[in-house]
Amino acid sequence: LVLFQEVPGCSNCTKFGNDILSHPLVVEAIETCFVPLCIYNNQSGHDREILDKYKEPSWNNPVIRILDRNGRDLVPRQPDFRSLSKTLGSMTAGITASGSEIPDYLDLLKEEADARENGSLADIYFSMYCFWSGEKEIGGLDGVVATQAGYMHGKEVVRVTYRPDRAKV
User: Fold this and answer.
1) 25-82: per-residue pLDDT in tens?
2) Residues 6+ positions from 29 with CB-CB distance below 8 Å
3) Pairwise CA distance, residues 79 & 97, whole Å
4) Residue/partner pairs of 86-94 with CB below 8 Å, 24 or more apart
5) CB atoms within 10 A of CB 90
6) Looking at CB atoms within 10 Å, which of 29, 44, 68, 94 has the fewest?
7) Distance between CA 5 and CA 90 in Å, rounded?
8) Is residue 90 scored above 90 in pLDDT?
9) Phi, psi (5° rounding) for residue 23?
10) Is 53 in contact with 37 (CB distance < 8 Å)?
């Protein structure tokens, strides 16, 4: 996984790093499924050689490329630094193209990111006798992407974030 970016401090690079690349599950996937490399697109030397090899422009917004061990693209370059869903799509496609198995947590995160970015999530609250049990049981239902236990008006509740097109809540 090669990240082409400007020098640290670029606002788009910082946003991409803070909003997408620092998500704990994205970090886990990058560290376990890829060999990460960062190339600064406004540097000389070895960075410039790699930029030239892949025809990446200088002073560009962040771009991700997923390469095989011979340096060939496994999937199309991914220039959309604003979308967690598209980044995860490139990562999962790259993992598949390499012949490896996509970790379950990455598939679930991609499903959630797709739903969030498409605006197809809804929330519902359930009053429970025990929010820990409710959270555990409801969280395992198809289409449920997140649960959060808490209190509302003095009662134990579980907030359920789900995809209405998939869940029967």
Assistant:
1) 999 999 999 999 999 887 788 999 999 999 998 777 899 999 999 999 999 999 988 9
2) 91, 103, 105, 106
3) 19
4) 87/20, 87/21, 87/26, 88/26, 88/113, 90/64, 90/66, 91/1, 91/26, 91/29, 91/30, 91/33, 91/34, 91/66, 93/66, 94/1, 94/34, 94/66
5) 22
6) 44
7) 17
8) yes
9) -60, 130
10) no
Give which of 13, 4, 14, 2 is closest to 91, Cα–Cα: 2
Cβ contacts of residue 59 below 8 Å, gap of 6+? 6, 41, 42
User: What's the token pair of residue 89?
Assistant: 């799509």
The residue type of 97 is: A
DSSP reduced 3-state for 121: coil
pTM here is: 0.78
Structure tokens at 43: 């540097």
Helix (H) or strand (E) holding 88: helix 84-97
Beta-strand runs (E) in the chain:
2-5, 37-40, 63-65, 122-127, 144-152, 155-162
Report CA-CA distances (Å) from 16 to 8, 11, 23, 71, 102: 11, 9, 10, 24, 23
CA dist., res. 1 & res. 73, Å (int): 10
